C-alpha cells in the first residue's frame, strides 16, 4: 500500500479540523492565531512529501500555499481583510494544493460576499459602503469602517462546500 492511498483519506478531514478551529477562534476573538496557521503550514509539508514524494510533494505544498496567499493578499493590502485570513487560506492551499485552494477561495468569496451584503442590508449601511467603494476607486484613504466579518468562517464554509461538492 502506498503512502498516497494511506494518507489521502485524512487530508480533507484534517483540513476541515483546521478551518473549523480557525472559524471558532475567529468568531470568538476576531483573529486567527499564528500558532494555528503556521502549525498547519508546517504539518502539511511532511504530509505532502509522504503522499507525493519529496519533489512533487514540496512543489504541491509550495504552489498551494502561494495560491492561497496570492488570492487574498490584495484584499489584505486594501485593508479589506485581516492577515490571519490570508494566512489561513495559505494553510488551506498547503494542505489541498493550488487547484482546490483556488476553488475554495472563490467559494469563500461568494459566501463572504453574500454574508456582507446581508449585513449591509440588515444594518442599512449601503450608503456608507458605496462611499467607501468610491474612495477605494479614487485611491483616497480614510474610509469609515462599515464593520468586520470574521472571515475565517467564510473560509471554513467555502472549504466545506468545496470538499463536499467534490466527493
Structure, explained:
This protein has one domain (3-106, 150-165). It is 82% helix and 0% strand. The protein contains seven helices and no strands. Helix 1 (3-29) runs antiparallel to helix 4 (83-96) and helix 3 runs antiparallel to helix 4. It is elongated.
- Which geometry do the CA atoms define? elongated
What is the average of the pLDDT values?
87
Structural class label: mainly alpha
| Alpha carbon gyration radius | 17 Å
Helices and strands, in order, run as HHHHHHH
Spans with pLDDT under 50 lasting ≥5 residues? 1-5
The counted number of beta strands is 0
**How many separate domains make up the residues?**
1
Tally of contiguous helical segments: 7
Percent of residues in β-strands: under 5%
Largest sheet: none
Distance separating the two termini: 22 Å
Fill in the keyword field for this structure.
167 residues; mainly alpha; 7 helices
Summarize the structure.
With 167 residues, the chain is an all-alpha fold. It has helices at 3-29, 34-52, 54-77, 83-96, 98-123, 126-137, 151-165. 34% of the residues are buried.
Please render the helix and strand layout as text.
Elements: H1 3-29, H2 34-52, H3 54-77, H4 83-96, H5 98-123, H6 126-137, H7 151-165
